[in-house]
């Protein structure tokens, strides 16, 4: 299947290495976009998270950066076909070199994370899923530079990589969601929201995607993603 249809938009992705996946959709549905006016999506790929942000927040302008030229063009095409084209922009650049005119209220990212794995043979997939072009240190430095003093940064990572990022970030964790593929199973992903200032109490929640049987989705997962997935 080349394209992926959501309730209010579609994502074409036949020429993009990293297709629409659960991680991106989860983050796009979970990140707190209330009362923000400028959003940055780092490593937008197909543009799915940026599109979710545009759907959820009717006033925000969403900027996306993507290092891969083909993916950046595809994101632009997906933006243009959406109902929110005038509020969505994409720039083909490394975030380390991105120099916007203003800082952002919210930054979101489903970043590369296979730090210690062997590179797959496909070069584009390597760029999209490995930290050789964007290390966690570089990501954190870029976010700190681009984030407004009162802004938030939200990302999703596998649990081991999340702990690595948490150990080096200059930001403060203020909200966390542990993601279990199966109810009662092990945590496989963590969504985190960070700020420049610490909080007195970190919000912690857990979400399971499925119950015991494939396709038997939990009520929490349905509630979080129902505005996007056609099956809900």
Structure, explained:
This protein has one domain: Vaccinia Virus protein VP39 (Rossmann fold). The protein is about 30% helix and about 30% strand. It is built from 7 helices and 10 strands. The strands form 2 sheets. Strands 5-4-3-6-7-9-8-10 form an 8-stranded mixed beta sheet. The longest helix has 12 residues. It is globular, with a radius of gyration of 17 Å.
Give me the Rg, rounded.
Answer: 17 Å
> What's the CATH H-level homologous superfamily?
Vaccinia Virus protein VP39
How many domains in all? 1
Which series of helices and strands comes N to C? EEHEHEHEEHHEHEEEH
Q: Classify the secondary structure makeup into a structural class.
A: alpha/beta
Indicate the CATH architecture.
3-Layer(aba) Sandwich
> Biggest sheet, strands in spatial order?
5-4-3-6-7-9-8-10
Number of helices: 7
Distance between the termini: 19 Å
Total DSSP E strands = 10
Which blocks of ≥5 consecutive residues have pLDDT under 50?
Answer: 114-120, 123-132
Helix content: 25-40%
Average pLDDT figure: 91
Secondary structure: elements and pairs:
Elements: E1 3-5, E2 10-12, H1 22-30, E3 38-42, H2 48-56, E4 61-66, H3 69-80, E5 88-92, E6 104-109, H4 123-129, H5 136-146, E7 147-158, H6 159-168, E8 172-182, E9 189-195, E10 203-210, H7 219-225
Parallel strand pairs: 3-4, 3-6, 4-5, 6-7, 8-10
Antiparallel strand pairs: 1-2, 7-9, 8-9
Helix pairs in contact: 1-2
């Amino acid at each position: 299947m080349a394209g992926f249809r959501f309730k209010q938009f579609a994502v074409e992705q036949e020429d993009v290495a990293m297709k629409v996946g659960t991680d991106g959709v989860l983050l796009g549905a979970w990140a707190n976009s209330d009362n923000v006016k400028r959003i940055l999506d780092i490593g937008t790929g197909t543009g799915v998270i940026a599109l979710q942000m545009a759907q959820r927040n009717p006033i925000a302008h969403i900027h996306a950066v993507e290092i891969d030229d083909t993916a950046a063009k595809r994101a632009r095409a997906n933006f243009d076909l959406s109902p929110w084209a005038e509020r969505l922009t994409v720039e083909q650049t490394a975030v380390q070199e991105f120099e916007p005119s203003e800082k952002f209220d919210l930054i979101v990212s489903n970043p590369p994370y296979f730090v210690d794995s062997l590179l797959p043979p496909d070069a584009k997939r390597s760029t999209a899923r490995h930290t050789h072009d964007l290390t966690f240190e570089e990501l954190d430095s870029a976010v700190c530079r681009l984030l407004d003093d009162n802004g938030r940064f939200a990302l999703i990572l596998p649990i081991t990589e999340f702990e690595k990022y948490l150990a080096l970030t200059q930001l403060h964790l203020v909200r966390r969601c542990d993601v279990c593929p199966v109810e009662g199973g092990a945590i496989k992903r963590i969504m985190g929201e960070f700020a420049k200032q610490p909080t007195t109490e970190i919000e912690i929640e857990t979400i399971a995607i499925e119950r015991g049987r494939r396709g038997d989705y939990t009520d929490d997962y349905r509630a979080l993603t129902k505005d996007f997935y056609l099956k809900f």
